[in-house]
Amino acid sequence: MASKHLLEVNNIEVVYHPYILVLKGISISVPRNSIVAILGPNGAGKTTLLKAISGLIKLERGKVTKGSIIFDGEHIENMEPENISRRGIVYVVEGRRIFKELTVEENIEAVAFAWRRSSRDADIVYKYFPRLKAKRKVRAGYLSGGEQQMLAIGLALLAKPKLLLLDEPSLGLAPKIVAELYQNIRELYEEEKLTILLAEQNARKALEIADYGYILENGRIVLEGPAEKLREDKDVREFYLGVTGRKGYRSVKWYRRKKRWV
Length: 262
Hints:
Layout: E1 5-16, E2 20-31, E3 35-39, H1 46-54, E4 62-71, E5 74-75, H2 81-86, E6 89-92, H3 104-114, H4 119-128, H5 145-157, E7 163-167, H6 175-192, E8 195-200, H7 203-209, E9 212-217, E10 220-226, H8 227-232, H9 234-239, H10 249-258
């Protein structure tokens, strides 16, 4: 009988080059057909965690030195990234990695060919990101940042992932585009029954669509819980959602002292 968790990360430590300890005893679970958010500031270890899961950590002289990563019942820690990808984990990295010299249509055709998908399979990109259809003849490098992010996620869908890893999808985007992008992600999850692990600094948007969340600080998990519970947590509301009534210099000093809870 298959586990209810598609992904289980158990007490892992990740080391770079080979003495820099970045992740320190991280444990997370991602249930099937759910959205799980990994939240935290820049440098907290979110991207390193996704790279450890996807295997890309090996390309940066990193290694899981302790603990285990189990995907769909199989240990995958320190497995080659191409083998992990074949098992159904697809990673949309930070920075909108697309073929900028090709048109939108050529990007889709190239990736569909690589995954041996039909033109009907490729239609999923336009289904969930309809604004790309109107720009299918436009070079990807001329798209807006939001449209490039939509294309990057759309290309990942052509791999038919079991687990979709999204790294900072809202980074550098205007609020209106972020809202549209997150609506697209929510529709993907609901209609395609996807399982999504989402790393974000934008806690507000991530917790709007997530089922469960973890907060990372300095390579450790400092808080976790159902998304609705995290949204109401006093410290999360203040330090990650920006809900506070304090003003002035003394409040800033208070913030720095108080944030030691993480």
